[in-house]
Amino acid sequence: MKNTVILLVDDDDDDCELFVAAIHSLNKNIITTISNNSLEALNNLKVATVLPEFIFLDMQMPYLSGAEFIQQLRAVPELSKIQVVIYSSHSQETLKNLTKDLEQVQIFSKPNNFNQLVSTLDNIL
């Protein structure tokens, strides 16, 4: 069975820890990589030999905002087809407004509890 590879781009260590715990609880073949720096993540993707199927991206990041990251990602043909999921503490309505000009992205607000996060990730993956 093939592993699903995902990249989490988030600068909040607590959110990263919770996200990884939720992924591990799914008992799926998922390999998770974390980057706390959006610019570094983009540069690493440009030279990667194995690309993720999904990028979970926080909108509020230093160096490159979530929107800037997506725009630069989509400008690279080899990276343009990676599924991007905006994973942010903004409300769902705010996220819709922030991402209205971005194509090919899914969005979800960071849930308030672990079980909601697990359920949401299970539905996406």
Short key terms for the protein model shown above:
40% helix; Response regulator; alpha/beta; 5 helices; Sig_transdc_resp-reg_receiver; CheY-like_superfamily; Bact_response_regulator; 22% strand; phosphoprotein
Task: Determine Rg (CA atoms, Å).
Answer: 14 Å
Number of strands: 5
* Count of individual helical segments: 5
Tell me the strand percentage band: 15-25%
Describe the sheet with the most strands: 5 strands, parallel
Query: How far apart are the first and last residues' alpha carbons, in Å?
Result: 15 Å
**Quaternary structure type:** single chain
- Show unreliable segments: none
Q: If strands are numbered along the chain, what order do they take across the biggest sheet?
A: 2-1-3-4-5
Alpha-beta classification = alpha/beta
Average of pLDDT: 86
Q: Output the helix-strand order.
A: EHEHEHEHEH
- Cα shape: globular
Helix content: 40-55%
SSE arrangement:
Blueprint: E1 4-9, H1 13-25, E2 30-35, H2 38-47, E3 54-57, H3 66-74, E4 83-88, H4 92-98, E5 105-109, H5 114-124
Parallel strand pairs: 1-2, 1-3, 3-4, 4-5
Characterization of the model:
There is one protein chain. It contains five helices and five strands; from the N terminus they run E-H-E-H-E-H-E-H-E-H. It has 125 residues and is α/β, with parallel strands linked by helices. A five-stranded parallel beta sheet has the order 2-1-3-4-5, sandwiched between helices. Helix 1 (13-25) crosses helix 5 (114-124). The longest helix is centred in the N-terminal third of the chain and has 13 residues, at 13-25. The chain is globular, with a radius of gyration of 14 Å. Residues 5-125 form the Response regulatory domain. It comes from Flavobacterium psychroterrae. It holds the Pfam family Response_reg. This is Response regulator.
